[in-house]
Amino acid sequence: MISDYHTHTVLCKHGEGDVEQYILKAIELGFDEVGCSDHSPMPGNFDPQHRMSLEQYYSIYAPSVLELAEKYKDRIVVKRGIEAEFLPGQEQWVGGFVRENGFDFVIGSVHFVSEDGEEMPLFGREYEGCELEDLYEGYYEAIRASAKSGMFDIIAHVDLIKKFGHRSSKRIDELIREALKAIKASDLCLEINTSGLRKPERETYPGEGILKIAKELRIPLTLGSDAHRPEDVGTDFDVAIALIEQYADGRMSVFTKRQRSEVRISSLPRRL
Predict the structure, then answer these.
(1) DSSP states of the chain as a string?
(2) 34 vs 51, 67, 68, 205, 225, CA distance in Å?
(3) What residue ranges define each of the domains in the chain, with the CATH number in brackets?
(4) Is 11 left (phi over 0), alpha (psi -120 to 50) or beta?
(5) Which are the contacts of 74, defined by CB distance < 8 A and separation ≥ 6?
(6) Which residues pair with 33 in a beta bridge?
(7) What contacts 72, CB < 8 A, 6 or more positions away?
(8) Roughly what angle, to the nearest 10 degrees, separates helices 208-217 and 170-185?
(9) What values do phi and psi take at 104, rounded to 5?
(10) Phi first, then psi: what are they for 182, rounded to 5°?
(11) Cα separation of 39 and 108, whole Å?
(12) What integer pLDDT is reported at residue 272 of this predicted model?
């Protein structure tokens, strides 16, 4: 089986194309499944430039995914997911939204680090060298908390913070391992996110250092392109498939109604 569980559309305000275009691209590639996972709404109109509103979720996203899943059911399995933000103080709202909407899977992500009451974004801002140690520590502490929150099935781009450069210290290394232990204890899976290969990092999220720990802890893996354009669906999956063979014995996680199962990953059906 081959699937792409991390796709975005124009509804996330920084993507292109509609849900149907992503599904058609997955069909063109010969995929068995495709997951729709736009950024979830947040309360208080938080971060509106990167996510759909609650009204757009109910009037556009949810009905579109259901309609298109039925339309293309004989050609591909369409899974309805969401990428939900972990933000301290908003767990009750996000958890309620997740529970009320019958998703097949929920991707948990951290794009903001809370520091002294301020939300420090991982995009659109540069940080001084003296700030980065605290930012890295805060990020992995947030990943650990997101894993323990009970809201998610998949933890997204777990080392996204490396976009600011690879950093290692005894404390950061300890926090990475503690975050992965929390992911394991909560019976979640990690995605191998290929978007990092399209960015200056030129490395999957996570990189092989973290994947080695994930294998040691027997954390299951799944696949996501983090496509923000239809043409990015399945990009660099040859790399991701090789990593799943190496670090998850060739098995990947798939979801239905938030129930995970493990399947044998297949080779790419068509040349990408």
Answers:
(1) --EE--B--GGGSS--S-HHHHHHHHHHTT-SEEEE-PBPP-GGG-SGGGS--HHHIIIIIHHHHHHHHHHTTTT-EEEEEEEEE--TT-HHHHHHHHHHTT-SEEEEE--EEEETTEEEESSS----HHHHHHHHHHHHHHHHHHHHTS--SEE-STTGGGGG-----HHHHHHHHHHHHHHHHTT-EEEEEGGGGGSTT-SPBS-HHHHHHHHHHT--EEEE--BSSGGGTTTTHHHHHHHHHHHSTTEEEEEETTEEEEEE----SS--
(2) 20, 14, 11, 19, 11
(3) 3-264 (3.20.20.140)
(4) alpha
(5) none
(6) 3, 77
(7) 23, 27, 78
(8) 40
(9) -80, -35
(10) -65, -40
(11) 10
(12) 45
Q: Tell the residue number behind the tokens 């399947």, with chain if given.
A: 263
The confidence score (pLDDT) of residue 127 equals: 86
* C-alpha–C-alpha distance, residues 223 and 189, integer Å: 10
Q: What is the mean pLDDT of each run of 10 residues along the chain (272 residues)?
A: 97 96 97 97 93 97 98 98 96 97 98 84 86 92 97 98 89 96 98 96 96 98 98 97 97 98 89 48
Structure tokens at 232: 């990015």
CA-based nearest residue to 133, from 157, 169, 158: 169
Find the length of the chain.
Answer: 272
* The two structure tokens encoding residue 156: 């997204």
142 has which bridge partners?
none
Determine the Cα–Cα distance for residues 31 and 101; give it in Å rounded to an integer: 25
